[in-house]
Amino acid sequence: MELFIQALAAGLVIGCVYCLISIGLTMIFSIMRIVNFAHGEFFMLGGYIGWFVVNHYVSNYWLAVLIAVLAGGILGFLTEKIYSRVYGKNLLSMFMISLGLVLILQNGSQIIFGAMSRSLFNFYPTVREIGFVRINDQRLIIVGATIMAIAGVLLFFKYTKMGKAMRATAGNRRGAGVVGIKAERMSMFAFIGGIALTALAGVLLAPLYSLLPTIGDRLTGVAFTCIVIGGIGSIGGAAIAGFAVGIVENIFGTYFSTAWAFAPMFVLLLLVLVVKPLGLFGKEVA
Amino acid sequence: MGRRSLDTNKKNISYLAGIAVAIILPLVIRLTGAYWAHILILIGIYAILATSLNLIMGYTGQADLAHSALYGVGAYTSGIIAIRFGINFWITLPIAGLVAVAIGSILGLITLRLRGTYFALACSAFLFLMSMVFTNLRNLTGGIQGLLFIPSASIGGFVIHQKDKIIWTYIVFAVLLLTIFVVDRVVHSRVGRALIAIREDEDLAKSTGVNTFWYKMIAFVVATFFAGVSGALFATYNGMVTPANFDIILFFMIVAACFIGGLGTLLGPVIGAVIVVLLPEILRVTGQYYFVIFGVFIIAATLFAPDGVIGLVTKARKKLARRQQKAVD
Amino acid sequence: MGTKRLKTLVTALFTSVVIAILIITSGCSTKTSTQATGTGEAKIFNLGAILPESGWGSSFGVPAMDGARLAVSQINDAGGFTVNGQKYKIQLHEYDGGDPTKEAAGATQLVQAGCSIILYEGSSDSAVQAVTEPAKSLLIIAGAPPTVTGQGIKYTFCIENSAMGSAFWPAMLSGPGGSTLFTGIKTVGILTENYSTCVFARPGFIDACKAKGFNVVFDETVESDTTDFSAVVAKLKKADPDILFFNSTASSTVLNLFPQMAEQNYYPVTFGYDSLLSRPPAIKQIATSGANGTVEMCGGGDVANGVGALLPDWASSMLGIDKTKLASYTQGMATSYPGNDSGAALTYYDFTYAMVYHMVKANSLDPDAIAASMTSGAVYNGGGGIYKWYKENHMMPYNVVTARVENINNKTGDCILDFIGGGTPIDYTYNNWNFTVKTQIDVQKTRSRAALVNVPQN
């Protein structure tokens, strides 16, 4: 029982990270219909930028977080510029661009930061005992930041003008255009916000686990799994799916084989695609 | 009637030209050294893989992200049955293709009802799962170390080693010509027309009564057969296979080959394979930076030459024709 | 002109352009670093190196290539080497083995360029061997499975024998003649990295444990770049072995496993292979207090990486290492090669020097003569270790030193090493050892690493 609760807790924390990445991806995907296979690379970059700030400038974690998020926004802006040129063309053009981005970002990181692993110093290592669970402060920070981010994003989309405009574009691009919403601007903000969230996830997780140029690969797969399970276009769905995937992955790894720990996620993806492609909360979009 | 025989005439000339090039080329390459012969063989294998992928990606418009996994299935199959049962290469070759078809068909049955992005995602899930299978089923696949000492091909008593480059080149090119021939036949048949219709507008095709699922399956079967075959060629030529040979980078190469050469054309994947294998050689001097440069190249190609090399050539030809026309007027 | 004919023409044109490019660039595919041979006297000796400079293996390949380059430039600057009265300067032919499908082809190219010795590390060992053995090119590898230097192989030499992991770990557990490092073991756990040498060592180790009556209660494999060990730690806590062997050489395993175990307040008695001690300072810097008390084992070849200076006299003499010579060696490397952050650089630096040593010793450039010199017991005493190959399996004797790591400083990574034992294999099978135990550890009395350490956890 104790084992189960610990596995649940660990899965939940990882799930928070998956959650943030998936929300970022669903924002981009639902508005731009871009299959950004380079999504995980921005997570990796967020972590590395945070590391760079702490190691080479000021040893202040929160500053590193801020800079990582801002850098994420800038990267999102630049990436959108590239993707917008192939908007509307076939899926394969988009895929090729994301492929090029993966190569550039991953190998660029390897050249700049080196191929050996790096660690962002953990400023909050104090371990607390909550019932059966031992969890350190950094993990609690992750959970807290995720809750705030989810709340912020939901509120944004529900109540702000910009948020509503973005939802309109996601639902019906042409219809939104008719009422004067510029789709290009919406795409821009979707990308900026989405990539910033992903970079945030990266810098949040960095103090706990080593940074390698390759950590983004797997996370791209995770993000796509989550948005499919949760349903494209649904922020809440992506969030729930993120937690679910994290928990399932950790419990499977704990009770079964760690070598196959990532397998259930892909099997789950295939199952959902076959049974209910729209996902749990997906909406049919125009 | 007359026109059709003229077309087939021109096609036959193309094939003859292709065969002539295939015969002369290896000999010329041999003059420049065994290294380039190896590159040529790699180009051939990748060309087969890219041509088969093109049937699904270029002609049918489906983003099949699982193709390199089926190449891996073919490679491992031929290696495993050659090592365990001593079956010779000429039999393991088609068996590898058939096993790839079997697994590809299962994948297709599950996923071909899905559209666009969903299909791509399902295929990518399959790709990652297969990679885990290759790495973890140690007793079958040799795990992370892979299959070693795969028996070489032989005819009667004569063994074809890896160093017999010229013979291997002919084998690979023979299979490549066969692949192009089969794909050509498929494309220019009723099946092909259905596939192109699916690519252009799947809903429209469906509404006119085309059973899109089964046509996609046919494309899948043909394509995965040749993927498996090219895997068997690689495994037997290289003598060993490891999971590292079938990673996502390989898939990137093949897709890039299709795209850069020209999707939806017969020769596009071949030209693409040439570029994709030669580029690392030309860029070898850049060392670590090679992949970054390749990434930039791919993005530039996507933005500025989305129809690939064949597309550029076609555009240039049209421009030339228009200029000639203007000169006449 | 008809479409089809134009297409044919274009194809033919394109292919001929391709041929032209190939012919023109056929000389450009390898990088060669030459020293001026303007002396007129010295001949060229062609040394090849196939190392992964791009892609996944580049964290190893780039420093390794740098190490070889440094050695070549130092040797040439000193005037080269003399064999049979003829002076030679080395020309290093580099080939990037980042793409595994091209490694064997690279070997072909280097052999054709006249390289009679090729330094190598990559993932297509047997494919490369298929080229070098018939060509009688000596192939020198840092780490490879035993198949690579098995029966009948004449020209391949290798440091690290994966199978030895399965032989000398049990030796650490209960050495020959009753000398035992750890006593009181009933249950054992093993965490394996899904990497060739580690995977290969696992079955032999498990068999040896069973033969000694140890119950293997934990046996998991993780991918090389795993950083999240929460599932592993949870399982470990449940299984709670008396001692845990982490069968992994990946720095990310050590860097992440220990802090995560510490977070769960779990400090099993651990024993590792080459992970902490022989890693460069950059890695030590990050090892957290969670690693205090772990017993590390490192082999002769990797000792120079910061451990050598700390060796006690008995260990130095056992490894045949002259400490003053070692100190000046590492100092020299640090000055001429400031990027010295990996054992790979030192290993390939030493390889280059070792090969020159053997050519001079054999007084011949003939591969058979050089191979004979290498297996005759002739010793090249490099900074990084003793280079001497068994004639039976062309592998090096892997002397080991074990130390308990204490007082790790989180920020700087400095630590105290309490050397507790060491040994040399008696023969190439690694089944028999001369092993000396300085401090015996009873795992039943000191059930956790925390108790092993004199200073409390910080």
Structural commentary:
The complex is a heterotrimer of chains A (286), B (329) and C (458). Chain A has helices at 2-32, 39-56, 61-84, 91-113, 137-159, 161-171, 173-178, 183-205, 215-230, 235-255, 263-275, and strands at residues 127-130, 133-136. Chain A has 286 residues and is mostly helical. Chain A has one domain (2-121, 128-215). In chain A, strand 1 and strand 2 (133-136) form a beta hairpin. The radius of gyration of chain A is 18 Å and the shape is globular. Chain B contains 14 helices and two strands. A two-stranded antiparallel sheet of chain B has the order 1-2. In chain B, a hairpin with a 2-residue loop joins strand 1 and strand 2 (158-160). The model of chain B has no long low-confidence stretch (mean pLDDT 86). In chain C, 37% of the residues lie in helices and 22% in strands. The longest helix of chain C is centred in the N-terminal third of the chain and has 23 residues, at 3-25. Chain C has helices at residues 3-25, 58-77, 103-112, 125-132, 162-173, 196-211, 230-239, 251-263, 281-284, 313-319, 323-336, 343-362, 367-375, 449-452; strands at 31-33, 43-51, 81-83, 86-96, 117-120, 138-144, 156-161, 182-183, 187-193, 215-222, 243-247, 270-273, 295-299, 380-381, 386-387, 400-406, 416-425, 433-437, 441-442. In chain C, helix 8 links the parallel strand 11 and strand 12. The interface between B and C is large, with 54 and 56 residues.
Name the CATH class of chain B.
Mainly Alpha
Strand content of chain C: 15-25%
Oligomer: heterotrimer
> Given the C-alpha coordinates, what overall shape of chain C results?
globular
Secondary-structure topology with pairs:
The complex is a heterotrimer of chains A (286), B (329) and C (458).
Chain A: H1 2-32, H2 39-56, H3 61-84, H4 91-113, E1 127-130, E2 133-136, H5 137-159, H6 161-171, H7 173-178, H8 183-205, H9 215-230, H10 235-255, H11 263-275
Antiparallel strand pairs in A: 1-2
Helix pairs in contact in A: 1-5, 1-8, 1-9, 1-10, 2-3, 2-4, 2-8, 2-9, 3-8, 5-6, 5-8, 6-8, 9-10, 9-11
Chain B: H1 2-32, H2 34-59, H3 67-85, H4 89-111, H5 116-136, H6 138-141, E1 153-155, E2 158-160, H7 165-187, H8 190-200, H9 202-207, H10 212-238, H11 248-261, H12 268-282, H13 290-304, H14 308-328
Antiparallel strand pairs in B: 1-2
Chain C: H1 3-25, E1 31-33, E2 43-51, H2 58-77, E3 81-83, E4 86-96, H3 103-112, E5 117-120, H4 125-132, E6 138-144, E7 156-161, H5 162-173, E8 182-183, E9 187-193, H6 196-211, E10 215-222, H7 230-239, E11 243-247, H8 251-263, E12 270-273, H9 281-284, E13 295-299, H10 313-319, H11 323-336, H12 343-362, H13 367-375, E14 380-381, E15 386-387, E16 400-406, E17 416-425, E18 433-437, E19 441-442, H14 449-452
Parallel strand pairs in C: 2-4, 2-5, 5-6, 6-7, 8-19, 9-10, 9-11, 11-12, 12-13
Antiparallel strand pairs in C: 1-4, 3-4, 13-16, 14-15, 16-17, 17-18
